[in-house]
Specification:
The complex is a heterodimer of chains A (about 280) and B (about 900).
Chain A: H1 8-21, E1 26-32, H2 38-50, E2 55-59, H3 70-81, H4 86-98, E3 105-108, H5 111-117, H6 119-129, E4 133-135, H7 145-153, E5 157-159, E6 161-162, H8 168-177, E7 182-184, H9 201-212, E8 218-220, H10 227-234, E9 239-242, H11 244-253, H12 255-267
Parallel strand pairs in A: 1-2, 1-9, 2-3, 3-4, 4-5, 6-7, 7-8, 8-9
Helix pairs in contact in A: 2-4, 2-12, 4-6, 5-6, 11-12
Chain B: H1 3-21, H2 24-32, H3 41-45, E1 51-56, E2 59-60, E3 64-65, H4 72-82, E4 86-90, H5 100-107, E5 113-116, H6 122-130, E6 135-139, H7 147-157, E7 161-166, H8 169-177, E8 182-186, H9 197-207, E9 213-217, H10 223-232, E10 236-239, H11 241-244, H12 249-259, E11 276-280, H13 285-294, E12 298-302, H14 313-321, E13 328-334, H15 338-348, E14 353-356, E15 373-378, H16 383-395, E16 400-404, H17 420-429, E17 433-435, H18 443-450, E18 454-457, E19 462-463, E20 466-467, H19 469-479, E21 494-495, E22 498-502, H20 508-521, H21 525-539, E23 545-547, H22 550-555, E24 562-567, H23 577-591, E25 595-600, H24 604-616, E26 619-625, H25 626-631, H26 633-641, E27 645-649, H27 656-669, E28 674-677, H28 687-695, H29 697-710, E29 716-721, H30 725-731, E30 740-748, H31 759-762, E31 764-768, E32 770-775, H32 800-808, E33 811-817, H33 818-832, H34 838-850, E34 859-864, H35 872-887
Parallel strand pairs in B: 1-4, 1-10, 4-5, 5-6, 6-7, 7-8, 8-9, 9-10, 11-12, 11-18, 12-13, 13-14, 14-15, 15-16, 16-17, 17-18, 24-34, 25-26, 25-28, 26-27, 29-30, 29-34, 30-33
Antiparallel strand pairs in B: 2-3, 19-20, 21-22, 22-32, 23-24, 31-32
The chains are: A alpha/beta (about 280), B alpha/beta (about 900).
Chain lengths: ~280, ~900
């Protein structure tokens, strides 16, 4: 079974490599499954992938999203209010594959919806739907080793998070446990737009990429909401993740607006400096 | 390659693959955190009729795929309703179409489950247990050399029964030599797939004298077959194909169950959930007090003449008075005669006896008019012979057995121990204790290995000929270590499988820092002294215990039972929450964090934290849901007065859970400067352990107070459970005692999801607020807002240690409804002049409700965790209808 599946980690890394080859930082777009409804969320995902996103994160609505700010928390509430959840995320990923979209898709989910289904069953269903990997904001590296190995067995990439206060040993653990890319949260706090980038975001990215030493790509997310902010980090990050700002666009103006905004944001990931992506050297 | 060889090769490949995902070491850890497996062999062996093991399989090499396979759960339910005793689940995927998921699903039905697969190594044995199996199949033909004995031992160690399958006399001999107790005779030849039932039944008959539990397998389908199997001596039949090919497997199973020939049932004493403790050789008042204080179940007085530590029966009578209804007194004899025993019983007035030195139970035991009769067995070469002797003792009226080292001729008190694995395997089948050489230092390991029904603490605990109080306490504590790990936190921040740290990476450094600071502080005499000083001077500790007047209890069906309230409502700020708030804010101060945040539901933790911050000069922000702000207005005003900022939380339903989410978000953003004072024994490690320890002052005091007041420990301790900090604070001091622990959850207005806050009783495991614990949640893992009239209980999760204790069976879980809590609040106010908070009113309600079910001599300890001032508005509004409802 697992042998027949694609290697999600390799597909995720390849997406970063192609972006690097094109002189860009990869653009990772986040769309909440089931928000505001199943079909429109799928439309938004398609729009993002057709308008320049290299990778799509599909958010799984959860009742207690403690790493998320008000925009995503509210979107989750709306999605849940009409029966959204893990199943709707699986359906959305399957629909995107049926619509012929081939880029890597990652599920961004809290742990509990997976545990409720049974971790192994949940991972199998995600893999069968065409998912390439997962990001779990409430699962630190090493907390559930069996889960990490089970994900690998199903061909799913795992991405762990690194924060500004992450100690070197923990950073090393996150790097070792991550198989897709490493997710840098450049600020202390939850998801959501900020007026300006956190102080030290650039330094953190540089430091983390050094620690990763080319073993895997390093992307930045949380608090990035404008093309200017994306542009400011493009030179030092292998990838840029935008979530809340796209969810807000979806809320205010629908999936076409998501596509247009992704076009703008992904254009801003074109690099100005002559930096070589560490991950592409492999 | 033959079919069997192919199946074995595939099985080995699967095990190799699975071991890469979950290595054996992790698998063993997982299994050790599980509650005991259901009894499989015992159910077959001691039934009142020939038992049916009904098989679930999707296909078989001999009969191909079963066309109308209904699904594992449907089929297993059908078998259960038809009266099958156990299930056999084929997990072999290549030719039987089975899977591990089938086993998991079938295990949830509730019947004992056999994993039927081609087991080739120990990994698969442990894996069977992890998947929910209670027994594993070992095929003799597939296990050459010592492999069979190795896997039998592995099964014993994993706490599983092993059905050892044989096909011919040579294989039967191998099974018996390997000391199998449960033997299946397969009528089907695995090489040719041909079935010969008469031949198989001749083999069953041949095995009859071995004392093994016997199962006839394959080719049986008619009532006549069952008669023949029973006649040959089988205890059970395993039937699969004939059921599955019948068109209606459940109906076919029912026909077999109804046709099953009767047998003589054997009644055995129940297995205790934890090892009982017997202190032996008590001969002084100090020894009696030590046995009482340590919480032993039995105190043995040696009355055998000429033996060490022997005393006269009259002396035993005097000493037994000091037991005060705590430990049960037992007269201990070595090879006595009937007259000697009867005379000693008369002279001492003690009605329980222990007899050692006999190979077979003496024939006069049936004539004794005894309470407990404890037989001492000396270990013999294997499990089967020990089993037969144990059964003879139980048949002679024994109520407890102890297995002791065999080599000394004199027996009793020889200081040797039976091989632990023999005890482990015996205890899967019948309850039996261990004795000999047990010390505080080795008893925990011995109990973990042997899982005995009883441990006998003997001469090793004496110092200068007197029982040593501290050593005895340590012995009992270690003997009662929870086998699932529920009684203490491990290095990974877990209680058994519950707990952990499921938080954003940003919080990990803060939790690491907190863990280090806490572990330094709890050992620092300066911190301990400051905590104690503030405990006394600021909080007003120790809080008293108050006995509800007997005439008041009589109104509630009391017939002499005694109920003590632990008066945490008298603690400063009106509830137990201050114990934790002082401890954590002192820690914040030590760590140099100027800002403190807290979440609050009922407002008690908010007020406590605000008070502590005012005293210690810390900035204080309290997150509180808007619903709670409304229903707990007086506490909001108090927090304001104490200088805290109360931040309203409007998300969700505006209750405790939303406040906790918001406090965690604040902490993530301000982690460098901020100390999060979590109010319940919940959340990520180290909070559950730290809060429990800070609250364990409640139980520590209460244990000493009840011992002082009653001369013994209470029989029952009751506390309400929301997050559970007052409950775990009380219960921790009693984990190593025989005291029943009862957690009372908010039953709200009913058992439907969302109508209560019963995460332990009605929830399912999951991750919330940083811990793996029990949650009120939907089938797809969304946390459901709980309901309780009491703001302090309506939390959708529960502290992980309480979840672990409930899973291990140590904690009993009850519910009290909104109306019951209100009625109890009213009653306690009117009858005792104490207005409790709504939260502990749930505990009072449950205690009053259970009174009639308890012996007249019972003593209950109820944690009255807070006072009711804050609830007056709710009470005024809701009381009339609640009183109408409860009196109706």
């Amino acid at each position: 079974m697992s042998l027949l599946q694609a290697d999600g980690a390799a597909r995720v890394r390849a997406a970063f490599s192609s972006a690097t080859d094109a002189g860009r930082s990869a653009f990772v777009a986040y769309v909440m499954a089931g928000f505001p409804a199943d079909v429109s969320a799928t439309d938004a995902g398609e729009a993002a992938l057709r308008c320049g996103a290299d990778i799509l994160e599909v958010g799984v609505p959860f009742s207690d999203p403690l790493a998320d700010g008000p925009v995503i928390a509210e979107a989750a509430r709306v999605a849940l209010s009409h029966g959204g959840g893990f199943d709707s995320a699986v359906r959305m990923i399957r629909s995107l594959r049926e619509r012929g979209l081939d880029q890597p898709i990652l599920a961004m989910t809290y742990l509990n919806p997976l545990l409720a289904v049974g971790a192994d069953v949940a991972l199998r269903r995600l893999a069968e739907a065409g998912c390439d990997g997962l990001i779990l904001p409430d699962l630190p590296a090493g907390e559930m080793p069996g889960f990490e190995r089970s994900a690998a067995d199903h061909g799913l990439a795992l991405t762990f998070l690194v924060a500004p206060n992450t100690a070197p040993a923990r950073m090393e653990a996150a790097i070792n446990a991550s198989t897709g890319f490493l997710y840098i949260v450049p600020l202390l706090g939850v998801t959501g737009a900020r007026d300006r980038l956190a102080d030290g975001a650039t330094a953190l990215l540089v430091r983390t990429r050094e620690a990763a030493g080319g073993r895997l790509p390093v992307a930045a997310g949380f608090g990035i909401s404008t093309p200017e902010q994306a542009r400011a980090l493009a030179d030092v990050a292998d990838g840029i993740v935008v979530g809340s700002a796209l969810v807000a666009a979806m809320r205010d103006a629908g999936s076409n607006a998501v596509g247009n905004f992704v076009t703008e944001l992904s254009a801003a990931t074109q690099r100005t400096g002559a930096i070589r992506c560490a991950a592409s050297e492999r | 390659m033959s079919v069997v060889a192919e199946l074995l090769a595939a099985s080995r490949a699967r095990a190799r693959h699975d071991a890469r995902i979950v290595p054996l070491r992790e698998l063993r850890r997982e299994v050790n955190a599980l509650p005991p497996a259901r009894r499989f062999e015992a159910k077959l062996r001691y039934g009142d009729r020939l038992r049916l093991i009904a098989e679930v399989k999707r296909a078989s090499p001999s009969a191909a795929r079963f066309a109308d396979f209904a699904g594992v759960v449907e089929l297993a339910h059908g078998y259960a309703e038809a009266g099958a005793t156990a299930l056999s689940i084929l997990t072999e995927p290549t030719r039987f179409g089975g899977s591990d998921d089938d086993l998991r699903a079938a295990s949830a039905i509730g019947l004992p489950v056999l994993r039927k697969d081609f087991t080739t190594n120990a990994y698969q044995v442990w894996q069977a247990r992890a998947l929910g199996a209670d027994a594993v199949l070992l095929i003799v033909r597939a296990l050459p050399g010592d492999r069979l004995a190795e896997l039998l031992e592995a099964a014993g160690e994993a706490g599983l029964d092993a059905l050892v399958e044989v096909h011919d006399p040579a294989e039967l001999n191998r099974a018996l030599e390997a000391d199998a107790t449960l033997i299946g005779v397969n009528a089907r030849d695995l090489a040719t797939l041909e079935t010969d039932v008469p031949r198989a039944l001749r083999l069953v008959e041949l095995a009859r004298s071995s004392g093994a539990t016997l199962v006839a397998e394959s080719g049986l389908g008619s009532p006549a077959d069952l008669q023949a199997a029973a006649g040959a001596g089988a205890h059970a039949v395993l039937v699969g194909t004939s059921l599955l090919a019948s068109g209606d497997p459940a109906a076919a199973a029912r026909r077999l169950v109804e046709a099953a020939p009767r047998r003589v049932a054997v009644n055995l004493p129940p297995h205790p959930s934890r090892a009982l403790v017997k202190v032996c050789g008590t001969r002084s008042e100090a020894g009696v007090r030590a046995a009482v204080a340590a919480g032993a179940e039995f105190a043995g007085f040696v009355v055998a003449p000429r033996r060490r530590r022997a005393i006269a029966p009259e002396r035993a009578r005097d000493l037994a008075r000091g037991l005060n209804g705590g430990p049960m007194p037992v007269l201990v004899f070595h090879r006595p005669g009937q007259a000697e025993v009867e005379a000693a019983m008369t002279d001492s007035g003690i009605r329980s006896v222990q007899l050692s030195g006999f190979t077979e139970p003496p024939d006069w035991t049936a004539m004794l008019d005894h309470d407990e009769l404890i037989g001492v067995l000396h270990v013999v070469s294997g499990v089967r012979p020990a089993l037969q002797r144990a059964e003879a003792w139980f048949a002679s009226g024994a109520t407890q057995l102890i297995l002791e080292g065999a080599t000394r001729r004199e027996g009793g008190g020889s200081g040797r121990q039976a091989p632990l694995v023999i005890s482990r395997r015996l205890n899967r089948i019948l309850p039996i204790g261990i004795a000999g050489g047990l010390l505080p230092t080795n008893v925990a390991r011995s109990v973990a290995m042997a899982r005995p029904a009883l441990v006998d603490a003997s001469s090793g605990l004496e110092r200068d000929g007197e029982p040593d109080r501290q050593r005895l306490r340590a012995f009992v504590r270690n003997a009662r270590r929870d086998p699932t790990g529920a009684d203490r936190v491990d290095a990974r921040g877990r209680f058994g499988r519950f707990g952990g740290r499921y938080v954003p990476e940003t919080l990990i450094p803060a939790l690491d820092q907190l863990t280090a600071a806490w572990s330094a502080a709890r050992r620092d005499p300066a911190y301990i002294a400051e905590l104690a000083r503030l405990g006394t001077d600021f909080i007003g500790r120790a809080t008293p215990i108050f006995e509800i007047p007997p005439d008041a209890l009589a109104e509630r069906g009391g017939i002499g039972q005694r109920v003590f309230l632990k008066r945490e409502d008298l603690a400063h700020t009106g509830a137990h929450k201050i114990n934790n708030a002082i401890g954590q804010t002192l820690l914040a101060k030590r760590m140099g964090k100027p800002r403190v945040i807290a979440e609050t539901g009922a407002g008690q933790h908010g007020v406590a934290t605000a008070s502590a911050c005012a005293l210690l000069g810390l900035d204080c922000v309290v997150y509180m849901g808007t619903t709670d702000i409304e229903r707990q207005a007086p506490n909001v005003q108090r927090m304001h007065l104490l200088g805290a900022e109360v931040r309203p939380v409007e998300t969700g339903n505006g209750t405790l859970r939303d406040a906790l989410n918001e406090a965690l978000r604040d902490w993530v953003a301000n982690v460098e400067t901020t100390f999060y004072v979590l109010g319940s024994a919940a959340g990520p490690h180290p909070y559950p352990d730290m809060v429990a320890e800070l609250q364990s002052v409640i139980g520590g005091e209460a244990r000493a107070q009840t011992l002082e007041r009653l001369g013994r420990l209470p029989d029952v301790a009751v506390a309400c459970v929301g997050g559970g900090s007052n409950a775990i604070g009380l219960f921790r001091a009693f984990l190593d005692t025989p005291t029943r622990l009862i957690g009372v959850e908010a039953g709200g207005r009913g058992d439907a999801l969302g109508d209560n806050a019963a995460s332990l009783g009605l929830g399912r495991p999951g991750v919330l607020h940083g811990a793996f614990t029990m949650l009120t949640q939907t089938a797809d893992g969304q946390v459901v807002e709980p309901h309780s009239l009491s703001a302090g209980l309506d939390y959708p999760g529960v502290g992980p240690q309480l979840a672990a204790l409930a899973a291990s069976g140590r904690l009993e879980v009850e519910r009290a409804s909104d109306a019951e809590a209100l009625e109890a609040l009213y009653w306690l106010s009117r009858r005792c002049g104490i207005v409790p908070a709504l939260e502990p009113a749930h505990a009072v309600a449950a205690a009053l409700r259970m009174l009639p079910s308890l012996a007249a001599t019972s003593a209950l300890l109820v944690n009255l965790s807070g006072r009711g001032d804050k609830d007056l508005a709710i009470v005024e509004r809701a009381l009339p209808s609640a009183l109408a409802a409860t009196s109706a």
